[in-house]
Write a structure and sequence with these properties.
The protein is mainly beta. It has one domain. The chain is built from five helices and 16 strands. The longest helix has 9 residues, at about 40-50.
Length: about 260
């Protein structure tokens, strides 16, 4: 009998403890990224996490996470964004052209096109938003769990990335400029904007090769106006390197299925 993957992440967690929401959504200043200029707040956020120049030297990132099917090893080429997710149950990846899936036991029931880089985006915040085609809107301060944060909204130009309709909001410490919360929307490639904001707390960080990278992420959900942590994810065996892997590492194993969107 084929097993069914229990979906580890719920991307429809509802968390609305951000106070003064109406004020938060009023833009103060919008800056389009020409890949050279960033708002001063974002530059300070980058610097608080080790600096954009340090990040841009890196070529390969890998980490492990625990799921209901066991350990997954996520490896990404930071320049090409080719990726592989490997576990004992299945293997999937992006070879630079298409998304592939090796699932001999038929256990994977998720959306491989959606999943292959989804955790990568969460993990590489805030550096991932330095990508060309992103634009930034500085918004009014917001209060989360009785603490006031600076707010930076991120959107993407059309035809940028897999899901340009997705949006992100970084909530940063106004004294240290360290990122503490992330708000995000998910479109699932349907081409329509999603107004359902979901939230992650960047609970702990660790310094690896001069970069401040996440160690623990906590998703939150709402139930009868009570906001409680619902899922926690720990990143282990994190490795980031200035050395790129050989391109064959990201190629689909023989017999893999290529996934259509």
């Amino acid at each position: 009998m084929k097993k069914t993957v229990l979906v580890f992440f719920s991307f429809f967690l509802i968390f609305s403890c951000v106070e003064n929401k109406k004020e938060e959504n009023q833009p103060i200043k919008k800056i389009v990224n020409d890949n050279k200029k960033y708002p001063s707040s974002l530059v300070k956020i980058f610097n608080a996490h080790g600096g954009l120049s340090t990040w841009q030297k890196m070529k390969t990132l890998s980490y492990e996470i625990e799921t209901t099917l066991g350990t997954e090893v996520h490896t990404t080429d930071l320049n090409s964004r080719q990726a592989v997710i490997a576990s004992n149950a299945f293997k999937l990846g992006f070879d630079g052209v298409g998304v592939w899936l090796e699932d001999k036991e038929g256990v994977y029931s998720g959306n491989a096109t959606f999943y292959y880089n989804r955790m990568f985006y969460f993990y590489t915040m805030p550096f991932i938003i330095a990508d060309e085609g992103a634009f930034y809107t500085e918004r009014k301060d917001a209060v989360i769990e009785r603490k006031t944060y600076g707010v930076l909204h991120i959107g993407f130009e059309r035809n940028v990335g897999e899901s340009p309709e997705d949006e992100y909001i970084i909530y940063y410490n106004k004294e240290t400029y360290q990122m503490e919360w992330l708000g995000y929307t998910v479109t699932y490639f349907d081409g329509n904007k999603n107004t359902n904001w979901q939230y992650i707390k960047y609970d702990t960080w660790r310094n690896i090769e001069g970069l401040l990278l996440p160690e623990k992420l906590v998703w939150y959900e709402q139930n009868n106006r009570v906001f409680t942590p619902s899922q926690t994810l720990i990143f282990t065996n994190v490795k980031i390197s200035e050395t790129a892997l050989i391109k064959s590492f990201f190629q689909a194993p023989e017999g893999s299925e290529f996934i259509e969107k």
